[in-house]
Design a protein that fits this description.
Length: 406
């Protein structure tokens, strides 16, 4: 089996509402590049990549000369062909590699008529648990804003009622820390017995990170995610706060993982199949974490159904997955896969059982959302449409006013 073509299609799939985060916003849609890798036997493997609200079509087209004639089973050779460590200092192809790895694993599974999780050692669980992913958000078409503690709790109640979540993650760093602390405490009061997570995307100062961490020590926290930036910053918070710390920002490769093992800064490593360059590197990283008693969870970077499938196959095979996975997925209005969005049941999503990734493209949906991308274009992920001229600093000093009219 040899690769004969790589096709990329950028889509814009609507969200319920624009989602705010500490560095900007998702502007009411996810812009994702869908990748199709065709082999000489007629099979087509699927991949997916984000890109901060922009298309990556040209970057994938440029890789066909590197990979034409390549055997999809040769994944290590593929890694060095397009993302060797020295060249990647200049071309930053890790996320491109991830999407192509997804597609090659999909091809392998289809060729052998087995699901990807069988290629990765076999599944240990039939379903993967997920946390609700709660954002402060602007009003959307038919969907209410989330700005106040009461609105946040009501939104979480709806998600729990519809999907069965028992873990709730608040994406913070938008409003002043004291205000978000009030919101977080409101969630804890509203859902006794459920677990909580808070993630301000590393924009708090050291003083604010310590103060926030100490203030939530008595709550049912899974972990405090990236309260401050950098391994040293996390280490200083970890030494003074009795809440496990997690990161997806500064342990995203093996060199950083080694540093975290040698000088513990984070207790939980959030494994992202895109940021780490594929599913297989995440499994290798999970093995290191298991050896050194670091927790792991599956991270979300804003997925449609193809990348969600990679997260499910990863979650299925990890023996040391003791935390619910993250997913933006429930914020989407639709998907580009056959059958539309995968369903939650009691806060879990079933691991796909079909050959390869177990999901296939819905051509009508793909065309519809490709047209929507052409109509709307991209957007700057690191800007907030409601705050013209604003940009985030680290640590941030210019938080949004929660009392201002949206």
């Amino acid at each position: 089996m040899k690769i004969v073509d790589i096709r990329a299609t950028t889509v814009a799939v609507p969200l319920e509402a624009p989602l705010r985060h500490s560095n900007g916003a998702h502007w009411g849609r996810f812009v994702r590049t869908i990748v199709e890798v065709e082999a000489d036997n007629g099979l087509v493997g699927l991949g997916e990549m984000g890109g901060g609200g922009e298309s990556a079509e040209a970057a994938f087209r440029a890789l066909l000369p590197y990979l034409a004639g390549h055997d999809p089973f040769q994944l290590e050779a593929l890694r060095f062909k397009i993302a060797n460590p020295t060249a990647s200092l200049y071309n930053n192809r890790t996320q491109l590699l991830a999407a192509l790895e997804f597609a090659c694993l999909d091809l392998m599974g289809q060729h052998l008529d087995v699901p990807v999780h069988d290629l990765l050692g076999g599944k240990l669980r039939e379903q993967v648990p997920f946390a609700s992913y709660l954002f402060f958000r602007y009003e959307g078409e038919g969907f209410a804003e989330v700005r106040t503690p009461d609105q946040l709790v009501e939104h979480a109640r709806r998600l729990k009622r519809e999907h069965g979540f028992t873990v709730h993650k608040l994406k913070g760093g938008v409003f002043p820390p004291d205000y978000e602390l009030e919101c977080y405490r409101a969630l804890a009061a509203a859902f006794p017995g459920d677990r909580l997570r808070y993630d301000p995307n590393a924009v708090l100062s050291m003083a604010e990170g310590l103060r926030f961490g100490r203030a939530i020590e008595g709550l049912d926290n899974d972990y405090l995610e990236d309260p401050v930036f950098g391994l040293e910053g996390l280490r200083l918070v970890r030494e003074q706060v009795r809440v496990p710390l997690a990161t997806n920002t500064v342990v995203v490769n093996f060199e950083q993982l080694a540093s975290n093992v040698l000088r513990r800064s984070a207790d939980v490593v959030l494994l992202d199949t895109t940021f780490w360059g594929g599913i297989r590197p995440c499994i290798k990283a999970a093995g290191v974490c298991e050896t050194f008693q670091l927790g792991v969870a599956v991270h979300s970077s804003g997925e449609l159904g193809i990348q969600l499938a990679t997260m499910l196959h990863l979650g299925a095979v990890l023996p040391n997955l003791t935390y619910a996975a993250d997913a933006h997925y429930h914020q989407l209005r639709d998907d580009v896969i056959v059958g539309g969005k995968l369903a939650y049941h009691e806060g879990r999503i079933a691991v796909p059982e079909g050959p390869g990734l177990g999901v296939r493209l819905d051509r009508e949906r793909l065309a519809r959302y490709a047209e929507l991308y052409k109509e709307l274009g991209g957007y700057p992920y690191d800007r907030d449409p409601g705050r013209p001229g604003w940009y985030a600093q680290v640590p941030n000093e210019r938080f949004a006013d929660p009392y201002a009219a949206p």
